[in-house]
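Predict structure. Chain length: 119.
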Amino acid sequence: MDSSLTFYLVLGALLLGFIVLGMLKGMIKMLLFGAAVLSSVAAYFWLSKYGFTYLSFITSDPREWMVTVLSVGGAAAGFFCFFGGCSLSLCTVSSGSATSSPGDGAWASAGPRESSRRY
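Prediction complete.
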């Protein structure tokens, strides 16, 4: 095989790999978004129907607004369990110290730095 042909085959394989992985990432994000929406709708309707039962353990006189708050809160928790958790794992975490910069990433803020410890 000619070396220029080998170069183009490797370059094409890398390009195809990036395209396939990008499509898989998009499909996984879409699947998690669908699961987030379905779980939030299911949680809302479940808590709207059975919210008085759950609230009767907390208070002797559950009101309609309490069930609504519980339903909306449960729906938001169900949504962010799937969708917010996915996006939170992809963002960077900063430790809040004065020596960290936004580009440090999650591994840089996993623990205190040697220079930021106070003895």
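Summary: Residues 90-98 have pLDDT under 50 and may be disordered.
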